[in-house]
């Protein structure tokens, strides 16, 4: 369903990787590893169509993603390394605003349920600047609770999370895979899922 072949990534003067390929089916997770600077975030950006590969091709449902454009983006959920939340807004306002900007309707009740699931019950109405780093990461991750797009691309989703929150996010990813979704993530730690198949790809040496 998601297939990459012979990908080459050049940033500035440097070639970060070449000859990278993988194939991912429904219910599978690709866990990207590698040293700092190996090109993991760059590869995620390539998958999302934000950075074109120097050579190679990425295909979604057997079609090149650069030809699919909006059709592909409609099936994609990208969660970047930065939380992309507004500090002056509350967790609830952040969720509602993000959904609104994406052209999606999100009921307040659904947003509150997502915040409770990620352990932020009681913090829904506090401006995000008063939250800890882990709590801010949880706000960003709350959108995964009700996310039903087929392909999740997650840049270091576990960063700043405590043990319980890592297990909670792994549970959300596992449920997504069980529904037939696909996921690609970068991480510096082992991924233990309750469901789905984990494939590993390590960039660099
Ligand atoms: N626009 C750019 N121009 C030049 N170099 C860049 C650009 N973007 C990224 N790089 C460089 O590419 C390399 C890989 O960056 P990338 O963020 O993909 O690595 P990473 O494997 O995700 O690292 P980390 O584990 O530290 O998050 C880094 O050395 C970075 O400085």
What do you see in this structure?
- Keywords: ATP-binding, Cell membrane, Cytochrome c-type biogenesis, Membrane, Nucleotide-binding, Translocase, Transport.
- InterPro entries: AAA+_ATPase, ABC_transporter-like_ATP-bd, ABC_transporter-like_CS, ABC_transptr_haem_export_CcmA, P-loop_NTPase.
- Residues 2-203 form the ABC transporter domain.
- By secondary structure, the chain is α/β, with parallel strands linked by helices.
- It folds into two domains: 1-75 and 151-205, P-loop containing nucleotide triphosphate hydrolases (Rossmann fold, 3-Layer(aba) Sandwich); 85-148, no CATH class.
- The protein is built from seven helices and nine strands; from the N terminus they run βββαββααβαααβαββ.
- It has helices at 40-47, 65-68, 70-73, 91-101, 108-117, 133-141, 163-178; strands at 2-11, 14-24, 28-33, 55-60, 63-64, 76-79, 151-155, 182-186, 197-202.
- The chain has a five-stranded parallel beta sheet, with helices on both faces.
- Strand 4 and strand 5 (63-64) form a beta hairpin.
- Helix 4 (91-101) packs across helix 5 (108-117).
- The longest helix is centred in the last third of the chain and has 16 residues, at 163-178.
- The two termini are 27 Å apart.
- The model has no long low-confidence stretch (mean pLDDT 94).
- Bound molecules: adenosine-5'-triphosphate.
- Adenosine-5'-triphosphate is lined by residues 11-12, 16, 34, 36-42.
């Amino acid at each position: 369903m998601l297939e990459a072949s012979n990908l080459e990534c050049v940033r500035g003067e440097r070639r970060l990787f070449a000859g990278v390929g993988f194939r991912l089916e429904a219910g599978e997770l690709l866990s990207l590893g590698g040293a700092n600077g190996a090109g993991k975030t760059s590869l995620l950006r390539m998958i999302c169509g934000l950075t074109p590969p120097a050579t190679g091709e990425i295909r979604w449902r057997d079609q090149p993603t650069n030809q699919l454009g909006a059709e592909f983006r409609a099936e994609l959920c990208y969660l970047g390394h930065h939380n992309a939340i507004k500090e002056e807004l509350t967790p609830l306002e952040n969720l509602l605003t993000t959904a609104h900007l994406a052209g999606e309707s999100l009921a307040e009740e659904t947003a509150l349920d997502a915040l409770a699931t990620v352990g932020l019950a009681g913090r829904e109405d506090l401006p995000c600047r008063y939250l800890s780093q882990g709590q801010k990461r949880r706000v960003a991750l709350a959108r995964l609770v009700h996310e039903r797009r087929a392909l999740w691309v997650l840049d270091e989703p576990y960063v700043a999370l405590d043990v319980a929150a890592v297990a909670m996010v792994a549970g959300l990813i596992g449920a997504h895979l069980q529904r037939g979704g696909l996921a690609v993530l970068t991480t510096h730690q082992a991924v233990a899922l309750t469901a789905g198949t984990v494939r590993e790809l390590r960039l660099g040496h």
